[in-house]
TrEMBL record:
It comes from the Bacteria. InterPro entries: P-loop_NTPase, Rad50/SbcC_AAA. One of its GO terms (biological process) is double-strand break repair. Keywords: Coiled coil. Residues 7-301 form the Rad50/SbcC-type AAA domain. This is AAA family ATPase. Residues 403-420 have a biased composition (Basic and acidic residues). Residues 209-279 form a coiled coil. It holds the Pfam family AAA_23.
Length: 426
């Protein structure tokens, strides 16, 4: 059973002259009044009484008073807490008269409960850190988020490369009617050399013809002297003429052109191969991108499962990128009532034995927000004591000049009764 405040009595604390209050056991108790009347002093006194000297005001005694501050709080677990005297000595007793001290109070009083706005005013990441700490999954979630960010960055880089490869491939030229592989010049040179060899043989035969032709001339001039020699030369000439008569030289012009054009041809072939490789690379990076996307989804699902299986203080709470979310919305996107509910739920989870919270300056909340928050508190069996610059019906008690209205003997009888927050199902 969580501990709540049954009653409080304060005298000469900060702006308080004398205040008595019995807050509603469940729901919202609003301390109203105008500015500088002592409303916040009531919350400060509660925090000091229960939280110890670290909450002690720098000037605890009411200005102009010769009487030392006196604080008394009765809790529903039977413990009575008192601070009084010049040194504000602490006295803690239970219903049996057994004495205790600050250590006993610390066991069931949550520090954030004494100052809920301190938690509310934290950054979203600080709130998330507190939540992860109390549900015990912070380290695991951090590892998953680190892995998700790493995969996301990797996927982004892969996607950019895939786009660049695809764009590069589209911008590259394509040549039709060219071989699939680069052509070798050595074969063409060999063919050229064969033709030149055959043409050389032809030339040799032409030279032979010319030689015998000259011999024939010589023989003719010496015909008279060597008819036999003339006839032999004539016969040789005849034979040589027949041998050279039908010779036809082959052209190497086409091969020479091919040799000249081979580098241009190979340039086109390599361009086609480069484009094909770029397209293959782009497709490979797209496949990697898809695979990384699947891994990211797996990590995100693992995060969802981790938080889904955790003992969360409130349904709808989650953490994304180190920030606290409620029903998928960031802190600044949820309503004032939802902020109060989320903060109270997390603070309660920090110490389930603490059944109350203190809130200052609720004038920023409209009455509908207060009503929603009050109903939720009642449904949860929680107690909240808050201040608000107002004297309206939403206030449970009014503070005037450091006094609760029901403590002022000169007040009218109808004002001596402490107002209570209207209950209802949330």
């Amino acid at each position: 059973m969580s501990v709540k405040i049954n009653s409080l009595e304060f005298e000469n604390v900060k702006k308080i002259k004398a205040v008595q209050l019995e807050p509603a056991k469940n729901g919202l108790t609003v301390i109203g009044g105008k500015n500088r009347q002592g409303k916040t002093s009531v919350l400060d006194a509660i925090a000091w009484a229960l939280g110890g000297d670290k909450y002690k005001p720098s000037s605890p005694q009411r200005e102009g008073s010769v009487v030392e501050p006196h604080l008394k709080i009765t809790l529903d677990n039977g413990i009575v807490v008192e601070r009084s005297g010049k040194n504000s000595s602490l006295k803690v007793t239970d219903s049996t008269g057994k004495k205790g001290g600050q250590q006993l109070l610390n066991s069931f009083v949550e520090q954030f409960a004494l100052d809920l706005p301190k938690f509310i005013n934290q950054s979203s990441k600080e709130k998330a850190s507190t939540l992860l700490k109390i549900i015990g999954v912070g380290d695991t979630l951090y590892q998953l988020e680190h892995k998700e960010h790493s995969l996301y960055d990797q996927r982004t880089a892969i996607g950019r490369i895939a786009d660049q490869k695809s764009k590069f491939a589209k911008e590259m030229p394509v040549y039709a009617n060219v071989p699939a592989e680069p052509v070798s010049a050595s074969e063409l040179i060999r063919q050229q050399q064969d033709i030149l060899a055959r043409n050389g043989e032809n030339q040799r035969k032409r030279d032979q013809k010319e030689y015998y032709e000259k011999q024939l001339e010589i023989a003719k001039s010496a015909y008279e002297r060597a008819k036999a020699s003339y006839e032999a030369a004539a016969n040789n000439f005849k034979l040589a003429s027949l041998d050279a008569e039908n010779l036809l030289d082959e052209s190497t012009a086409e091969l020479e052109k091919n040799i000249s054009d081979i580098e241009e041809l190979n340039k086109k072939i390599r361009a086609n191969l480069d484009r094909e490789k770029a397209e293959i690379d782009a497709e490979d990076y797209r496949s990697q991108y898809t695979y990384l996307t699947e891994q990211i989804e797996d990590v995100r699902q693992a995060k969802t499962d981790l938080l889904g299986s955790a003992d969360l203080p409130l349904e709808g709470l989650s953490v994304e990128d180190g920030e606290l979310l409620y029903n998928g919305h960031k802190w600044d996107s949820i309503s004032g009532a939802e902020q109060l509910i989320v903060a109270t739920s997390i603070v309660r989870k920090l110490n389930p034995d603490c059944g109350f919270v203190l809130l200052d300056k609720l004038e920023q909340m409209d009455t509908d927000t207060l009503d929603d928050f009050g109903k939720w508190l009642e449904a949860q069996g929680l107690q909240a004591i808050a201040t608000r610059v107002s004297t309206g019906d939403e206030c449970s008690i009014i503070i005037e000049d450091g006094r609760s209205m029901d403590n002022d003997k000169n007040d009218k009888e109808e004002n001596t009764e402490t107002k209570t927050w209207k209950a209802g199902a949330f």
